[in-house]
Design goal:
274 residues; alpha+beta; Jelly Rolls; Arc Repressor Mutant, subunit A; 2 domains; 8-stranded antiparallel beta sheet; 20% strand
Length: 274
């Protein structure tokens, strides 16, 4: 719970430029905060439960569970708990980082982070900022900024998303689990679709089948393992999920124009010192 003292601390610190600090509040409907002249720094929120509002001269936006919200520096504003509810949220004051330019040029920005895996990344990033900004160990400010960059870029990616959200979810799952046994039925169930409808939608959105996409991911990773991590062709094929080396070798030759072992010899040589 935020206390009157912690609210005052927010105001005092937020009135200075180049600050970087944050907190975690769980507030009743009575909570609101107003800055008639704005502030020198930026303010970012992540709502865990309930919801809040952000009010600027451009209007009002709501920030509900799973939403990232930002208030731009120099903009008069008020924010608080949505009437009749609670607002459980993280907040961080920070000076502008370059990644902010990936977001719309609006006074207040609210972006929904719909996928649970991404929500966990955002939550962990805020927790890291709170921990690092309080401990202030070596490189603490850079660590905090890196965590904020991740949140801002994840939010910007949601705004620029061009594929169906169900296919985006499947693509992220494939990239994380490409070395495992993957069934189309499981992907379809995650997307809430039948296997046939999911397969059709995947092809429509990406231009390739699930198997074609998965094999392309695996072959690219195998090539990287051979050229940069010292893995031989057999090891690389097993690392990325191929249980049949001959099948792997045939597909690799089709994509890269040479056998895996030839690729390894060509790309895996140590570079001569100049």
């Amino acid at each position: 719970m935020a206390t009157e003292a912690s609210n005052h601390w927010e105001y005092t610190a937020g009135s200075h430029s180049n600050v970087l600090f944050g907190g975690h509040f769980d507030e009743s409907e009575a909570y609101k905060y107003r800055r008639a002249e704005g502030m020198a720094d930026w303010l970012i929120f992540y709502t865990l439960e309930g919801g809040g509002y952000l009010r600027t001269p451009q209007g009002e936006k709501l920030c509900r569970a799973g939403d990232v919200a930002l208030l731009r520096a120099g903009v008069p504003h008020e924010y608080g708990t949505i009437p009749g509810g609670r607002w459980n949220f993280y907040w961080v004051h920070f000076h502008k980082i370059a990644e902010i330019d990936c977001l719309p040029q609006e006074e207040a920005i609210v972006v929904s982070i719909p996928e649970r895996h991404l929500q966990q990344r955002v939550r962990h990033a805020f927790q890291d900022v709170l921990s690092d900004s309080r401990e202030r160990s070596t490189f603490w400010s850079m660590l905090c900024e890196n965590s904020l960059r991740q949140v801002v870029l994840l939010a910007a990616a949601q705004l620029k998303q061009r594929l169906d959200s169900r296919i985006e979810l499947a693509l992220r799952y494939l990239s994380r689990h490409m070395g495992e046994s993957i069934r189309i039925e499981d992907l379809a169930r995650m997307a809430g679709l039948s296997s046939s409808r999911f397969s059709h939608l995947f092809k429509q959105e990406t231009g390739e089948s699930v198997l074609e996409h998965l094999n392309r991911l695996r072959l690219r990773q195998a090539a990287l393992l051979m050229s940069h991590m010292g893995r031989n062709a057999t090891e690389a094929s097993l690392d990325v999920g191929f249980n049949n080396y001959n099948h792997f070798a045939a597909m690799f030759r089709q994509q890269y124009g040479c056998s895996p072992r030839t690729y390894k010899k060509q790309k895996g040589r140590p570079q001569a010192m100049s």
